[in-house]
Design brief:
- By secondary structure, this protein is an all-alpha fold.
- Helix content is 84%, strand content 0%.
C-alpha cells in the first residue's frame, strides 16, 4: 500500500468520524429530551443501568480484537489472503467462545435483576425485554459481526462508522417518531432489537462485497489456533493493559468523592463532561490513523516510519495545544453562562484538568507501541494505577480535589510521558530517546510562548465572553483560531514534522482536486 493510499484512508476515517460525531451528538441530545418526556426518568435510568451491567460482561473480550488487529497488519500488507482467512477464522472461533461466556454471565446476572432494580416501577417483563435487547446487540458482535475487525485493520473503519452510526441515527429518529404517537416503552425496545439485526445484515453484506475472497471456517478455528500461539500471548498482555486503564480512570472519581464534598463533585463533573466530549472527538480524529501506522510498521521501512512518527507527533502537539489553549480561555466563561458563576472551579483546578487532558492528547507513543506489538510491559499499567492511587490518597488528603488531580498527573508523567516513549525508542525504533525529548521540549516551549502572547492580548480584550452565548462563541472561535494559526506558524518554521505533514496534506488535497 502506498503512503498516499494510507493517507487517503486516514483522511476518510477522520472525516467520517467527524461528521458522525456531530450528527450523533445532535441526535442524542434531542432524543434524550424526548425519551425523558415520553418514557420518564426511571425508564431512561433503567436502560443506562442495564447497559452498564452488560458492559461489565464485555470485559470477557480480554483484548482479543486488538491482538487480532495487530496480527492482520502484515498479511494485509503482503496480500496473503490465505493467512487472513485463517486469522479471521480463529477470531470467529474465539469470539464464539467469548459470546457463550457473555451469554452465561448474562443468564446468571438476569437472576438478580429483580433485586438490582427492586425500586424500578416496571414489570419484570419490561425489565427482561429491555435487558434482552442490549444482550442481543452485544452477542451479535461476537457471533455475526466479528469480521468487521478486518475492515478496521485494513483502514476501512469509515465503513463500519458510516453503517453503524447511520443505523444508530435512523433508530433514534424512528424511536422518537413512534414515541410521539404512543409512549409505549415496548415499541422503543422492539425497535432497539430490530436495528441490531438490520445493522448486522447490512454490515456483513458490505464485508462480502469488499472481500469476496474472505472465506472463514469457524469450525476449524480450534485447530488453526494452534498455529497462532501469539494470539493468546498478545491477548493476555493487552488484557492487563485494559484492566490497568480501567482501574486508573475509575479510581480517580472515587478519590474525588472521598476527599471532597458532594457539591465539589458536582462542580467537577460539569467540567469532565465537557472535557470528555472534546477528548472523544480528538480520539476519533487522530485515532483514525492507527491502522495505517500498523501497516506501515509491517512494511519495515524505517525511514518512512520515522517520517510518519514526526508528522503524527507534530499533529498531536498542534491539535492538543490548540484545544487546551482554547479550553483554558473559554471553559470557565461557558460554565458561567451554562450553569452560573457559583459553579466555577478555581483556575488552579482547571489548569490541572487541562494538563491531564494535554498529556492524553499527546500520547503519540501509544499508536506506535501497538503497531510494533510492544504489549509485554504489563507492569506499566499496574504501576500507573498504583501510583495514581498512592499519590491521590496522599495528596488528596492535603489538597482535596487538586491533590487527586495532581496524583493522576504524576502517575501519567511517570508511565505515559517517560516510560512509554522510552519503551518505543529502545525496543521499537532502536534509537536514542533523547531526540524525542528534544522534540518535546521544543513543542512545549512553543506552546508556552503562544500562551503568554495570547494571555497578554486577552488582557486588552474589550468583551466579556460570559456576557452571552453569541459573544462567547465569537470569543472562543477567535481564541481557537489564534492558537491554531500561531502554533502552526511557529511549528512550521521550527519543526521538520510540521513541514512534512503540511506537504503531505497539500499533496492529498491536490490529488483529491484532480479527481
Amino acid at each position: 500500500m502506498t503512503a498516499e493510499s494510507r493517507a487517503h484512508k486516514s483522511f476518510l476515517n477522520a472525516r467520517t468520524n467527524l461528521i458522525f460525531y456531530f450528527l450523533v451528538l445532535a441526535a442524542t441530545f434531542f432524543s434524550r429530551k424526548i425519551f425523558l418526556e415520553k418514557l420518564g426518568d426511571d425508564f431512561v435510568g433503567m436502560t443506562s443501568t442495564l447497559s452498564n451491567l452488560l458492559g461489565l460482561l464485555n470485559l470477557a473480550e480480554l483484548g482479543v480484537g486488538s491482538a487480532v488487529g495487530y496480527m492482520l497488519y502484515k498479511p494485509l500488507v503482503e496480500g496473503d489472503r490465505e493467512r487472513i482467512n485463517q486469522i479471521v477464522s480463529v477470531l470467529g472461533y474465539v469470539y464464539r467462545k467469548i459470546g457463550l461466556v457473555v451469554i452465561a454471565g448474562a443468564v446468571v446476572l438476569a437472576v438478580f435483576l429483580p433485586w438490582i432494580l427492586e425500586s424500578a416501577p416496571f414489570s419484570n417483563l419490561l425489565i427482561y425485554f429491555t435487558y434482552l435487547s442490549y444482550l442481543v446487540g452485544a452477542v451479535l458482535g461476537y457471533f455475526v459481526n466479528y469480521r468487521q475487525l478486518l475492515l478496521n485493520a485494513d483502514q476501512r473503519q469509515y465503513v463500519v462508522t458510516a453503517y453503524y452510526q447511520s443505523a444508530n441515527i435512523l433508530r433514534l429518529l424512528i424511536q422518537m417518531a413512534v414515541l410521539y404517537r404512543t409512549s409505549n416503552p415496548y415499541y422503543w425496545v422492539g425497535i432497539e432489537i430490530g436495528f441490531s439485526f438490520i445493522y448486522s445484515w447490512i454490515l456483513n453484506r458490505r464485508i462480502d462485497r469488499a472481500y469476496p475472497w474472505l472465506k472463514t471456517a469457524v469450525q476449524n478455528g480450534r485447530q488453526l489456533l494452534k498455529a497462532y500461539p501469539e494470539l493468546i500471548k498478545y491477548t493476555k498482555q493487552i488484557f492487563v493493559h485494559r484492566i490497568g486503564a480501567t482501574a486508573l480512570f475509575n479510581l480517580s472519581p472515587v478519590f474525588v468523592y472521598a476527599y471532597t464534598s458532594l457539591t465539589i463533585v458536582a462542580y467537577y463533573t460539569n467540567y469532565t463532561l465537557i472535557v470528555s466530549k472534546v477528548q472523544l472527538l480528538v480520539s476519533q480524529l487522530l485515532g483514525s490513523a492507527d491502522a495505517g501506522i500498523g501497516q506501515l510498521v509491517a512494511e519495515g521501512d524505517e525511514n518512512r516510519i520515522q517520517k510518519v512518527f514526526r508528522e503524527i507527533f507534530a499533529l498531536r502537539y498542534w491539535v492538543g495545544g490548540t484545544l487546551v489553549g482554547a479550553l483554558w480561555f473559554g471553559l470557565n466563561p461557558f460554565i458561567q453562562l451554562w450553569l452560573g458563576a457559583e459553579y466555577l472551579l478555581p483556575p488552579g483546578t482547571v489548569a490541572l484538568i487541562l494538563l491531564n487532558l494535554y498529556i492524553m492528547f499527546t500520547r503519540v507513543a501509544d499508536s506506535f507501541n501497538m503497531a510494533y506489538g510492544l504489549f509485554y510491559d504489563t507492569w506499566a499499567p499496574i504501576t500507573e494505577a498504583g501510583l495514581n492511587a498512592g499519590f491521590s490518597v496522599l495528596l488528596g488528603h492535603f489538597w482535596g480535589l487538586n491533590g487527586v488531580l495532581l496524583g493522576t498527573t504524576l502517575s501519567m508523567l511517570a508511565i505515559v510521558v517517560i516510560w512509554k516513549p522510552y519503551f518505543l525508542f529502545s525496543k521499537g525504533f532502536r534509537l536514542s530517546v533523547w531526540r524525542y525529548w528534544r522534540r518535546v521540549g521544543v513543542h512545549v516551549l512553543i506552546l508556552a510562548g503562544v500562551f503568554v502572547l495570547i494571555g497578554w492580548l486577552n488582557r486588552y480584550c474589550p468583551v466579556d465572553p460570559a456576557a452571552g452565548y453569541g459573544v462567547w462563541f465569537l470569543y472562543s472561535l477567535t481564541v481557537t483560531a489564534l492558537f491554531a494559526l500561531l502554533l502552526f506558524g511557529v511549528m512550521l518554521l521550527s519543526t521538520e514534522g510540521m513541514r512534512t505533514l503540511t506537504s503531505r496534506m497539500m499533496q492529498l488535497i491536490r490529488s483529491r482536486l484532480r479527481r
